[in-house]
Structures are given as C-alpha cells and as structure tokens.
Design a protein that fits this description.
Structural class: alpha/beta
Length: 253
C-alpha cells in the first residue's frame, strides 16, 4: 500500500490546496508532478487497489488542463482509491470536476471524494487574493479528516459531481506571456513549461500555438522577467470583475 499525490500546479495555488488536504490524510506520499512532459512517454505509472491517490488540477476555462488530462489518461489506476481536487480562481469550475472524474475512472482509478477549492487566480492575481486563507485551511483539514475515516472504514461512495455534457468549450486564451528586458536567458522558464512552448536555447521565443497560458514561466522566473501585456490584463480584469466578485465557497463531495 502506498500514498500518492499527483498535482498539476503551474503557479503554486493547486499545490497549496493539495498539501492542505494531504497533511491530515497521511504522513508521507510519493509526489508525481503532472507538469512533467516525460509522463507522456516511457514507463506507464501503475497503481493498485491498495493505493490511495490525491489528484489535483486547476480549472482552465472550466476544463481540466489538456496536458494533465493526457498524462492521467495514460496511467493504469488499478482501482486505487482517489480523491479528486479542482482549484479555481473565484469565477467557476464549470465541468472540470466531472471531466476529471471521467478521465480517472476511464483510466481505472476509483474516485471516493472530491473537492472544488478556491485559490488566487493564476492570471488575474487581484481575484481570490489571499486564498486559501485560514477559514479554507480549517475547512479542508476537517474534510480531509472525514475522508480519512471513510478510507479506514472501507466506505466507497458513489460520487455525483456537477458538470454537464458536452463539456464547456475552451480553446485557450489569446494572452501569452513574453520575456521582458530583464531576461538573462537562464532558461528556467523553459524547464518549468509543461508543454515545451519555450525554446531552452532562446527563452525569449514563445511558441504561441503550444502555450496554454498556465503562467508557470511567470511565477517561477527568478528575475521576474516574464509577463502578459498589461493592457490585456487590464481588459481581462474588467471583463471578469463581476464573475469573480464576492467570496466563492469551497465545495466538498
């Protein structure tokens, strides 16, 4: 029996939520970074019914990020009991939980619980600033305790999660991060890009067809030398202001 955390977290918010849930669940777990392109080739990750997994992804336009979905679909779940976690930036998560459930069930995992949690928006950082906060931390810890008890009892509920078919259409965003004059060409952005959209030999160049605007390159640049054009951020912020207003709740299943 082993515990696993499988996390796709470009800017750290999804990882933070995953950690808040995992800490009351188990003392240690093997971490599998779903940002790693190597998961699309080589040996297939295989689990068993004795294993427990926590799978956490952000909601991109109400959907599971394509690279995360593809990497999970390639695994063999082996009926491992699995906690589904979707993190969203205070707008909505739409069909993300349902799509994640379908992806994992098809791959042979056995979903036993699910969480839709709020964290700071990965692009428009003014929305859900400070979340997850102390209230979120306590709520997630309490729910993790409930999950742990059910796992120990062997209770496997049938999950009915929100979402609808066909899934919400999402073709990515027109805004793509670019380097600024402060770029030293260190290549860190290329290392963390989950889709290979940045040339390691020339990190100032971005393949906009590949880029999924995950913002990993912006969040992890040591020189803070990558950004989305400010005008685009301003316009997007105005457009999203109403949808992201107020405190959205975490939802526990």
């Amino acid at each position: 029996m082993a515990n696993y955390q499988l996390v796709f977290s470009p800017t750290g918010g999804t990882q933070k939520v995953a950690d808040l849930l995992a800490q009351p669940l188990w003392k240690d777990a093997e971490e599998i970074d779903l940002m790693d392109q190597a998961l699309e080739e080589g040996p297939v990750q295989t689990f068993s019914s004795e294993d427990c997994c926590l799978v956490a992804v952000p909601s991109f336009g109400g959907r599971v990020p394509g690279p995360a979905r593809q990497r999970l679909a390639r695994m063999h779940g082996g009926k491992a009991r699995t906690i589904l976690v979707v993190v969203y930036g205070n707008r909505a998560y739409d069909d993300t939980l349902l799509e994640l459930q379908e992806t994992l069930t098809t791959a042979g995992f056995q979903p036993v619980a699910a969480v839709a949690a709020v964290a700071k928006h990965s692009i428009l950082r003014q929305f859900a600033a400070g979340r997850p906060d102390q209230m979120d931390t306590q709520e997630l810890a309490n729910f993790a305790g409930d999950i742990r008890r059910r796992l120990e009892e062997g209770t496997v509920p049938v999950l009915t999660l929100p979402g609808k078919y066909p899934y919400r259409s999402y073709d990515g965003l027109p805004m793509k991060p670019h380097s600024t004059g402060g770029c030293t060409g260190c290549g860190q952005c290329a290392k963390v890009c989950p889709v290979g959209a940045i040339d390691p030999a020339a990190p100032q160049k971005v393949d906009e067809e590949k880029c999924i605007t995950c913002m990993a390159c912006v969040a992890r640049c040591p020189r803070k030398a990558r950004r989305v054009r400010p005008l685009l951020l301003f316009l997007a912020g105005r457009k999203m202001r109403k949808a992201c207003a107020g405190r959205k709740p975490n939802q526990l299943f």
